[in-house]
């Protein structure tokens, strides 16, 4: 009786295990921007799961059971890397028991490895806050980086799923063409932003500032990942008098208190940027993300 | 700039040893140019600048070979300055490598394991003497269940190492460094190796590890939300079940998290007992199920079983040594629920967890094995006991959390057969309880300061009001925590 039940259970589990094979490539994206990018390139050849949403602080995600379950049946993990996900992704990958997606395997892809990193710290000390040894990990705020990652990701998808390699290359070509056209449009419309002095809540927009030529005066956070206190903000207000910033940039997931306090006293607008796909109602995909970001930045300039 | 000086010094060098100098600088400069060419790709701008400067240096050196017969005497320092140009070029190369992204460091230390050190100190105030701590109604579990000493105490420091061994194995080691009566003590908390490459979602772990049963059992003390373990864990596992053996886990390929595991272990610690036999003395099996509810909530439930067959498991009670031999079966049901607005736990979150543990032991209980009392006796006995805890922790603003916990133990039905309760006073029916409240402050993910207040009624008729002040600091690599 018991043996029979066990056999039945084993058979059921085998059927479950066999299910995902043959279907589209299961992609586990650590953050929404890479989920959106995988959809752009892979189309119906991929089945994409975004582990986090734009309203979550990507540094502080928990290794939830649902993430482990999704990682278990994934063929490709697309992570940002540069230690952005260090607080949760290593546990998810290890606990999943999925050998194909471990770092070093073709099933593990890091976006940050494809681009030139900014703000690589000259010294590593936790007294400097939440520093990332390999540089600022928020690379998705520069569309040029997105294109570089897209190229590498298409190659990786073709490697994993050779049968659909042509489809991935076509997906990339189609995306790259539309993306380059969009970039030209964005750069043109962003001309007034060049040299505009801004404050940032967290050093989330280094790559965007590099792309658009924004002048970052400093961060409200005294150290990366540390909430600003009143003395810190008062000090920044003094600096604002000498070198006035035009606006404060805050990612959608961050707490409003400090930037609102500062904006009110400095009489400058707080511009809440979507930061990633889904960070605002208007940023449904990658194109909309930059459309909306630029619209908000230009509105902040007025 | 420094590069003007090399020019002048090369001039001097050329003046002193015209032929040698020009030969030397030709070779050096050729090497430099080669290096620079390699650098070009990643560091174009600075390379251009350097090349222009080097071209100027070259010209001067060449000119010097023919024209500067009357120039200075410092040939030795000229060679140094050429070396300095080289060093500067190497610096630039290093900077370029750095700017190129996360190129790992080279050398022997590149493969060092991740090392972390966790220091944990307490300052306590107790009404009762911690050295006489006991949980009435339950057979003592022999572990480190008592509170720390009164006043200042240096708790255990955890030193942990972990790294991938090769493409198949990952190894973890964790040692607790403590002091006992002025003697340094090193305890091996965990030393194990786990597989990385098994197919089909299987994982095997071998060595000493914290058992996968229950929810709290796998968490290290620095991850606990309170300064001490729940009473139920103290009573049934000597605060946690640590196995020397093998563990197999399997995660089902389903969207709902479903995990099964089983362990086979030596079982030399409570609820097992020291044994000198082949094979295993303790088995466990567990299953966990978990998922999300919308974007804001996540949950996990589990059911676990621990089976052991202790032989001559001794314990002290009322100054004599008693022993139990038989079967010990423990069931654990656990749940955890976490809520954070939109799943963003940075600002606010709520965590509720609880576990229920029930144990049945049947076998032979021997009173006074050494026959000190002259009334040594043995009887078939049967114990069915249970315990639980429920706790909630709420982060109400970044860095600040408050928590409450309730602990309940039920000494349940104890049938001692022909033995009488006066011989085993610790097994007299009593239901210990404890109520705990805490507030903690974590300036970063790596530090935590905590104040905890508790009213502990582990001892029959002796309530203990406790105050704990604790800090926990994590140094070095700090691995991600489990859910």
UniProtKB/TrEMBL annotation, chain A:
Record key words, sorted: Signal
Organism: Zoogloea dura
Protein name: Zinc ABC transporter solute-binding protein
Pfam families assigned to the protein according to its UniProt record, in alphabetical order: ZnuA (PF01297)
UniProt GO molecular function: metal ion binding
Leader sequence residues: 1-23
One biological process term in Gene Ontology: metal ion transport
TrEMBL record, chain B:
Signal peptide segment: 1-23
Chain coiled-coil ranges: 22-67
Keywords from the UniProt entry: Coiled coil, Signal
Cited InterPro entries: Porin_dom_sf
Name this protein carries in UniProt: TonB-dependent receptor
Species per Swiss-Prot/TrEMBL record: Zoogloea dura
